[in-house]
Amino acid sequence: MKKPLLIALSVMMLSLAMLAQPLNQPASGNSGGVYRAVFAADDLYLTIEVLDDDLAHFELSLEESVLWTSPMVEKTNYSGPSVVNQPSENVIETPEMRLDVDTEALCVTITDIIRDLLLTTVCPLSEVLDGISFTQEGTTDLYGLGEQFERRRTINENLIGNRRRVLNPYGNELNSFEGGFVGNAQFPILYALGAGTNNYAIFLDNVYQQVWDFTSDPFIAVTSGNPLRWYMMTGPDLPDLRRDYMELTGRPPVPPRQMFGLWVSEYGYENWEEVTAVLESLRAADFPVDGIVLDLFWFGGVDGENSQMGSLTWDEANFPDPARFIAALREDYGIGMMVIEESYVSQDAEGYTDALGAGVLVRECAELDCQPVLMESWWGSGGMVDWTNPEAAAWWHDERRQPLIDDDVMAYWTDLGEPEDYVESAWYYGFPEANLHDHADVHNVYNLLWLESIWEGYQRNNINQRPFILSRSGTSGIQRYGAAMWSGDIGANLTSLAAHLNVQMHMSLSGMDYFGSDIGGFYRLAGEVNAGPDELYTIWLANAALLDVPLRPHVRNLQNAYETAPSLIGDVPSNLANVRLRYELSPYLYTWAHRAYRNGDPVFAPPVYYFQDDPNVRLLGSQKMIGDALMMATITSTSEHVPVYLPAGGWFNYYTHEYIESRGEWIEVRVMVDGLLRAPLFVRDGAIIPTFHVDDATLNMLGQREDGTTHNELILNVFAASGTFTLIEDDGVTMAYQVGEVRETTINHMLGADRWTVDVDAVQRDVELRLVYPASNIAGVTLNGESLPELASPEAELGWMILETGTILIRIRASDIPLHLEILFDGES
């Protein structure tokens, strides 16, 4: 073996040296920008960039190079670690991590310095750079890596002992599963957890097909493409790791408030009359609703010899005067419009010649006079848009999508983005700075660049309305462009539902806060029919009402044989209660959407995120945290009871207010509450849950009401113990929140031996507090030192009373000064 060389890089040139040095800094004991070092052995090069105290960037290559980052990565301007030390020529230390380089094998051992804990040793799989191996050490549980439905995996299982693989030679794909077709999307972020809060994360910044194997030690990740690049993250716990990952790949913007509501959809509404009939059914049954989703028929469909795939122009024979109709929907029902869009352009479609002339289609070769690739598919014969070409992407947005924005379309349903169809020999604009133009180079980021074109089109054209995208595929980074994902054309059965809920756990940790499904199943009566369609629909909706953004039932209904609106299928009273629960919880959810945007906090996390040191939650995919205060248990069977694990601490049943002091134990919970099917929902003691007034007149998430009245009171549900919460609100529509145009209201409460104090920031609107307290020894209530009267009835405007449920109801009129309440106890519990 050749003697390895250790090479130090300066800002302007490469030079050989005995020690790797930070850029323009002494070798030890100082900070000063990103620390960069290169090690060489047997024609392989290992480059290390230390970006922060707990973050390092690595590259294995066949030649020295500047580290390139893929489009998955957003942040490339790290300021470097606070301090770097180099106790020996092959060891690099920050205050939080130590990197020990084997200068012959080019392996790196990563140690958590704070814990003095060896995390893993990462090595090249071979000299041809076809992947990396990393030792198991103390790792017991693994999470992340995006979306994969695995037949052998149960709902309560993580990745340890499993493989994460794709059959498509390029990566992202759609797989058959239990009578449907579901997504398999690579998000190459892996979280490795050991005992307690021992952990680290690996982000493999590689755009090619990846196969991960966790069935033996060492673990391996097999891929292709020279060089190999990855990031290592260390930290005190899983929340810290996820925030670091979100900082690296981008945090999600806050969705339009209406996207948290009910959006009805099917394949497909064939004219405005069908849309109107569904909306009338919903309103007749007093359902709030925020949007309609149009599938392929809106632009004329894809059947026969006149496929309109890619035209993105209205079929005005069936959808006449769309701008007027959309405006009427907004006026009469308070709802928005989402339309489907694909990347394919049929040769028969209106506007194909224009797209061809503008050069926006993927070509057969690099020369400008090359013809676009041609493919034959179920949607017709034609080509595909080259989203990797910035000029093509901008043309498409300005010429095809902007007219829809002008018609007040508010969201885009990007379908087939794996991409489903492609020509292997095609030439893409790609990434000329890295000389990457083949299909393999772009397959897994094709969808990301498509979504980027929407986001950037809004910015370029000064559209102040927030974009929102519902995507079938993607990869790390799509979240920063306002994208949600759904799990594809899923089969209507409980097996598929359970698998989807396991996938949701990994998608949350992969950075997708908004991950949903075709509620009720896209293919009805598919796979193992383990529940009738009506029962299945209501079960699915009960889960989705607490998890999916948007809340979107969908079905393949070309023969008009099935229903998808919750007013027309299943147990309608239960459907109504669960849809209203979504609206009721919207201020809490919306605040967490702001926290996701600001800090990278998850909106819907698995329990392991908050209870990492509890071994009972490590496999728990059947339960979800909503923010940090609510925990729901999913329903995936027709049983009357659901097993629920409550981590140690105090918990309240959200529906009944029953209090449970848990030592970390399982309980059985009935799914029927007052005759309604409900997914079990528990609240941590000390929590503050702001809610929204919902009744028969509620139209939408914006608070519009059928009777024209206004309900803008601040409703706060405060659960006994002590805690704090800051409610975050904005206009719900525009980008103004990104420049600070928000309203924040902080609430603090403290439970003592003789009183319970609650403090609320000054709010210029009425306040309704519902204090949930497991005892009834209330002697009185004071507001800013003055006694409040007892209410004669729950409808009275000022005062307090104890409701039949034991909840303390307090009503206060709008005030310009902060509110200080004291709930006084009489000493008897």
Poorly predicted runs of 5 or more residues? 1-29
Tell me the overall shape. globular
Q: How confident overall, as mean pLDDT?
A: 94
Q: How would you sum up the major sheet?
A: 11 strands, antiparallel
| DSSP strand content | 25-35%
Class based on secondary structure composition and strand pairing? alpha+beta
Cα-atom Rg, whole angstroms? 28 Å
Number of H/I helices = 11
Write up this protein.
The chain has 829 residues and is an alpha+beta fold. Helices cover 16% and strands 30% of the residues. The chain is built from 11 helices and 51 strands. β17 (211-213) and β18 (219-222) form a beta hairpin. It is globular, with a radius of gyration of 28 Å. Residues 1-29 have low confidence and may be disordered.
What's this model, at a glance?
With 829 residues, this protein is of the alpha+beta class. Helices cover 16% and strands 30% of the residues.
SSE topology:
Blueprint: E1 5-9, E2 14-16, E3 35-41, E4 44-52, E5 55-61, E6 85-88, E7 91-93, E8 97-102, E9 107-112, E10 117-124, E11 131-134, E12 141-147, E13 163-164, E14 173-177, E15 180-193, E16 199-204, E17 211-213, E18 219-222, E19 228-234, H1 238-249, E20 263-265, H2 272-284, E21 291-294, H3 322-333, E22 336-341, E23 344-346, H4 352-358, E24 375-377, E25 380-384, H5 390-406, E26 411-414, H6 439-442, H7 446-460, E27 469-471, E28 483-486, E29 488-489, H8 494-509, E30 515-516, H9 533-544, H10 572-584, H11 586-599, E31 604-605, E32 623-626, E33 630-633, E34 641-646, E35 649-653, E36 659-662, E37 665-670, E38 672-673, E39 676-677, E40 681-684, E41 688-691, E42 714-719, E43 723-729, E44 743-751, E45 755-760, E46 767-772, E47 778-783, E48 786-787, E49 799-802, E50 808-812, E51 819-825
Parallel strand pairs: 20-21, 21-22, 22-26, 26-27, 27-28, 28-30, 42-46
Antiparallel strand pairs: 1-2, 1-3, 3-4, 4-5, 5-19, 6-7, 7-8, 8-9, 9-10, 10-11, 11-18, 12-15, 13-17, 14-15, 15-16, 15-29, 16-19, 17-18, 23-25, 24-25, 31-32, 32-33, 33-40, 34-37, 35-36, 35-40, 38-39, 41-42, 43-44, 44-45, 45-51, 46-50, 47-48, 47-51, 49-50
